[in-house]
Write a structure and sequence with these properties.
Elements: E1 20-26, E2 50-58, E3 64-65, H1 69-72, H2 81-86, E4 96-102, H3 109-114, H4 118-134, E5 139-143, H5 156-173, E6 177-182, H6 186-192, H7 195-199, E7 204-207, H8 241-250, E8 258-263, E9 265-270, E10 285-286, E11 298-300, H9 301-311, E12 314-316, E13 325-328, E14 334-337, H10 341-353, E15 358-362, H11 379-392
Parallel strand pairs: 1-2, 1-15, 2-4, 4-5, 5-6, 6-7, 7-8, 8-15
Antiparallel strand pairs: 2-3, 9-10, 9-11, 9-14, 12-13, 13-14
Helix pairs in contact: 4-5, 10-11
Length: 393
């Protein structure tokens, strides 16, 4: 279904990208400062098969909503985000550009009400397609990730399938694709998703296999570990990528429709003591905010690798695990779990070995977009895509 992207030559030779590599772009990255700021013009069109612009939302009348008109549109001297994003296809015509609708901050209340009836669903679908066509998008990435949750209703489980079926039919008639983003939580999967029914009405299903741990735990752990850690017990035995992917397949999602999420960011803690700094180290507070993302408990990969180079952070991998963590004890006692060049190779190989439909990054702008750390721009995403494509062929 997805054509191999062309080999493009720029300052450096880009790898041949084949298969489904979905890359989310956070539209608000244009507001960041310094090397954290990423403009659409700085993206590499050949890096991904699907670029996804996050986010649009929904209005009270159930029509699609442009969340940041100044950044997204050209009106009134705006930054023309939508049009610049889809114009990447002028460089690589085989690229697909999608608009993501939803996200955690949008909640479920309006989506739940919109999905209740065929009439309200039709209002949303018509307005969404009009917006997609106006700005030359190739489809919709539907990110109502938590039906029945976050302000939703029990009926969402059934209505969500009705909505996806009608969306898929309408988009397909326009030659467009439908992808969705779904939760890694077993309890949410059980409550919110009729998995076999969903599988019939979507092209690809991105599983957000990250944020499985974080500062809310008050102890350190990797937020996107591929396998369980030897000391995991109880619910933590499920909080790893392999367990999540295996559960989605067991519930009825074809592996070749599943897209495995790989984070381009780390989850960070402040250690309670400098004496304990492995997994399950006590950490009551989130880590300090990064200089560009400005969010406690979170750092983009670019922020982490920059700080490692400048401040001499320690890098370690727990025995039996694949993903790194890094810490700095002398001043702020920060501890971050994240991905690096080696770990994304292992994850890409896992996705290929298990016959998955693709890999996904959240978000491409959190990668080393300017080559601050290793010299190659977007090294993690390029490495993930290249490894997955070679291992899948």
């Amino acid at each position: 279904m997805w054509k191999p992207l062309l080999l493009l030559l720029s300052v450096s030779t880009l790898p041949l990208i084949e298969g489904a590599v979905l890359c989310y772009f956070e539209s608000w990255a244009v507001y960041r400062i310094g090397d954290g700021k990423v403009e659409i013009s700085e993206l590499e069109p050949a890096l991904c098969t699907h670029y996804i612009y996050a986010f649009a939302g929904i209005n009270a009348d159930f029509t699609i909503r442009v969340l940041d008109p100044w950044a997204d549109l050209c009106d009134g001297g705006g930054k023309c985000g939508y049009d610049k994003f889809t114009a990447m296809k002028n460089t690589d015509p085989s690229l697909l550009t999608l608009l993501a609708v939803g996200g955690w901050n949008d909640g479920s209340v309006l989506y739940s009400k919109m999905a209740e009836t065929a009439e309200t669903r039709a209002v949303f679908i018509k307005s969404a397609i009009q917006l997609l066509k106006l700005h030359n998008f190739d489809g919709l990435d539907f990110c109502w990730t938590y039906p029945t949750q976050n302000g939703g209703a029990p009926e969402d489980r059934v209505n969500y399938v009705h909505l996806l079926r009608e969306l898929k039919e309408a988009l397909e008639a326009e030659g467009m694709v439908l992808t969705i983003s779904v939760s890694p939580s077993k309890s949410i999967i059980n409550e919110a998703y009729d998995v076999p029914a969903i599988a019939q009405h979507v092209d690809l299903v991105s599983v957000t296999t990250y944020d499985l741990h974080g500062p809310w735990d008050h102890y350190t752990h990797h937020h996107s570990g591929l396998y369980a850690f030897s000391e995991d017990t109880g619910d933590n035995l499920f909080l790893n990528v392999d367990a999540v992917i295996s559960y989605w397949v067991a519930e009825g999602m074809p592996a070749n429709k599943l897209v495995m999420g790989v984070p381009m960011f780390g989850r960070c803690w402040t250690l309670d003591s400098v004496d304990t700094h492995g997994y399950y180290a006590p950490a009551s507070l989130p880590g300090e905010a990064g200089p560009w993302t400005s969010t406690k408990g979170f750092m983009a990969y670019a922020e982490i690798c920059m700080k490692q180079a400048k401040e001499g952070w320690t890098v370690a991998v727990e025995e039996g695990c694949n993903e790194p963590y890094t810490y700095h004890l002398s001043s702020n006692k920060i501890w971050c779990s994240y991905e690096n060049h080696d770990s994304v190779i292992i994850k890409a190989q896992y996705a290929a070995d298990h016959g998955l439909g693709g890999v996904m990054v959240w978000s491409v702008n959190d990668d080393d977009a300017h080559g601050v750390c290793g010299g190659r721009k977007y090294d993690l995403t390029f490495t993930l895509a290249d490894t997955f494509n070679k291992a899948s062929n």
